[in-house]
Design goal:
2 copies of one chain form a homodimer.
Chain A (H helix, E strand, L loop, with lengths): L1 H9 L7 E5 L11 H6 L13 H6 L2 E5 L1 E7 L4 E6 L4 E6 L3 E3 L3 E3 L12 E2 L4 H12 L4 E5 L3 H12 L3 E6 L11 H13 L3 E4 L3 E6 L5 E6 L2 E4 L2 E4 L3 E3 L2 H5 L23 E3 L6 E2 L6 E2 L4 H15 L13 E5 L2 E7 L2 H6 L4 E9 L10 E9 L5 E8 L7 H9 L4 H5 L15 H13 L1
Parallel strand pairs in A: 1-2, 6-17, 8-15, 9-10, 9-15, 10-11
Antiparallel strand pairs in A: 3-4, 4-5, 7-16, 12-13, 13-14, 18-19, 20-21, 21-24, 22-23, 23-24
Helix pairs in contact in A: 1-8
């Protein structure tokens, strides 16, 4: 919908007709807000709807919900659409096509996976269903996966008073995000919140009663009784529609696009969770399913469709979340990612505080900087700490983006006042420690 | 004291003797914390002491308080010191000398300026005196100057229940810091807090009673009754000791140093509020009296004294503060500064929110970006907004430091999650708007 809006904005007035098809019942919902809706912080799910079909219509964009595109013909510039309400299919023609099919939660083919009570949290309806389940008396939950969504859902369910078990195959939470010593702080916070965190534990299936209602999650050597189970195993790009149309996919399974967001087919563009993005640190393409990238990519596609020249320069893996009061930010690569890419890294951990030590509300913050052993270039950073910690990751993101070394960053004129940081801001302090380690 | 500590750290063990002389009774106090001590947020002034003479002694550094250096002989490598307690003077020899004499609050020669109740807030004793005055019954205050210290002191006095008038010569608060439209939000917050903010108003003197106790501040055509008056008119570097010794001073009145923090005299170094720093945006030297610079400069001097090679690369005018819940950050140059320097600037104001609009605690934030009209390089930024606003200035600082354009910054992979920002972070949004304005 961002590409639609941008194209409508940049096109000469009256020259563009835009039709959007959406399988579900809603347009433009804030998926990232769903855990906080479940938590009860956002009382009305309508607040998560950025724009309704009616609002798009007012901009001249026809958004048809409950319509699923079943095939694309890139030669004849047509596509087949099924109206799920009327249950009829028709053919639509296009001059330009934007594929923005998003991603789906990974659903492993386990026994009982279709049981009532086994849930995901991808759509507004998912959120409403989870909220209803809790209102209807769910008291125990198993969350499968301790990545971003896993810990956000766990926070929400704890806040709603459920007894929560989190199963994670890796031996740490946020294994793709944080190094082990940083993840340890996340584990501690989860355990302190009363979560039964089971690391190195795979879910093997789900037990059900005669009504196919969930009764327990099955793990090696036992079962964990639960009223609901939430799958938070990551996502896969919805690229089969493009793939079936002969559009090139990448090795990570997403649609391959150039930096103008054009696919391998002329006048076919793609944006959002369904595409692969170039990681500027590793030089590799991967899936980085985040609203920020989707918005930028959509804007780039919309601009280019109407004859503009915009490019999406790639990503560096920046992400942020929190578990209760513990904030978590990361950007660039971890040491493990560096090792996998054959990059010689060095890492420094700097423990500091969010505000001047004497200022009320000053909290511990730990910053880990990963830099090139060869030239000191910053390659990654992770931040875990109290209020005001995680957004500092943007400084590292900007530094990585512009090719700064730890020595450079250690001298940047960053802001200081007691309510906001110690004299040595945690970012400067960490860069400074890393620079000293190099000299 | 930072240079002393750094030199002690980097010197070969047992090779260095360090003596420090301090006019006052304390070493290493956190001057920036004083308004918050007065406000009552930091109950004990001892919390503001980073390190006592005893703690320095444990590191092998002799810190002599109540000792004032009265002259420096750069030829014979000596200095004259007066012990204020014993009232005796002696001569000290040195191989290396670090001048870190700081700055003093500007005290205009006005009638009544020496009255009891006319105060500053530079030292711990100043803070204690202000706290005592309030405890002794001061109920009304006039703050002279609406820069950083002025608004921080005003916040503190309002919090302590005083009726506060702020006099400011300029027609806006923070005139050296913010452009007029950004300053307007600060004015509104001050007025909402019950402050009588009088812009375009000079203090002409102070009325006193027979005991020389303050009774009122005098302004054109009237007087403002007050129990205390706080001078917050900015600072002047304490450079006369260096100047008298023939050490080169700059046009802004501070000690001129090279990027190794060496003065014009061999083996004489200087650091902190008494020196001039190079502004990397304007290429001009100026006074940037902040603890961050002082700490970095001290560390550079300490490293170089012991044979290391460290440089201080300059400043870009980053600063941060708050008035109650309104956060204020700035970096680089304002449009007025650009005009004064003959730099062709363009500016964009972007209104956004600190968190996703639907997330509890989401506050308005206004970002103003100043960039080069010629090449789009970011030259400055100002941020005014609710909780979580001001520290975002560090992203702009890092971008300016590395020479980024608004187009570059608009595409940086910055973090997003609903508790931390909208999908378009206010910084990205502002850069993006500025970039669109260019194309």
């Amino acid at each position: 919908m961002t590409s639609a809006s941008q194209a409508m904005r940049t096109a000469a007035k009256g020259t563009l007709e835009v039709i959007a098809f959406e399988r579900g019942p809603r347009t433009s919902w804030a998926a990232c807000g769903l855990p906080y809706f479940v938590e009860g912080l956002i009382p009305d799910h309508q607040k998560l709807i950025a724009r309704t079909p009616e609002q798009f219509a007012a901009r001249g964009i026809e958004a048809k919900v409950r319509h699923v595109v079943t095939s694309i013909d890139t030669q004849n510039h047509t596509l087949a659409v099924r109206d799920l309400t009327a249950d009829v299919e028709h053919t639509e023609v296009w001059d330009h096509l934007v594929i923005a099919t998003g991603a789906s939660g990974i659903t492993p083919p386990l026994p009982g996976i279709d049981a009532n009570g086994v849930m995901q949290l991808r759509t507004v309806d998912d959120g409403i269903a989870m909220d209803e389940a809790i209102k209807s008396g769910a008291r125990t939950a198993v969350v499968v996966g301790a990545g971003y969504i896993g810990i956000e859902v766990a926070e929400a369910l704890v806040a709603r008073g459920l007894k929560v078990t989190v199963l994670e195959l890796a031996d740490q939470p946020m294994a793709a995000t944080l190094g082990p010593e940083m993840a340890e702080m996340v584990s501690e916070a989860m355990i302190s919140a009363g979560i039964d965190l089971r690391l190195g534990t795979a879910v093997e299936g789900f037990a059900t009663d005669a009504d196919c209602d969930l009764t327990a999650a099955l793990v090696s050597g036992g079962e964990i009784e639960c009223d609901i189970a939430v799958l938070a195993l990551g996502i896969r790009p919805n690229s089969h529609l493009a793939g079936d149309a002969g559009i090139e996919l990448g090795e990570a399974g997403g649609i391959r696009v150039d930096d103008r967001m054009q696919t391998s087919a002329p006048n076919v563009w793609a944006a959002g969770d369904c595409v692969e993005s170039l990681n500027r640190v590793t030089g590799q393409y991967g899936i980085y399913a985040l609203g920020t990238h989707a918005n930028k990519q959509g804007r780039v596609a919309g601009t280019n469709i109407t004859g503009g020249q915009a490019t999406f320069p790639g990503v560096i893996g920046t992400a942020i979340t929190k578990f209760q009061d513990l904030e978590i930010g990361r950007t660039g690569i971890t040491e493990a990612e560096g090792e996998a890419q054959g990059i010689r890294t060095a890492a420094t951990t700097a423990r500091s505080r969010t505000k001047a030590g004497y200022f009320p509300g000053s909290d511990p913050v730990t910053v880990r900087v990963i830099h090139s052993r060869d030239d000191g270039k910053i390659l990654g950073a992770q931040i875990v700490g109290g209020e005001g910690s995680a957004k500092r990751i943007d400084v590292f993101a900007t530094a990585i983006w512009s090719g700064m070394t730890v020595d450079d960053l250690a001298m940047v004129d960053m802001s200081y006042a007691p309510p906001f940081s110690p004299v040595w801001d945690p970012v400067v302090f960490a860069a400074s420690m890393a620079a000293q380690g190099r000299s």
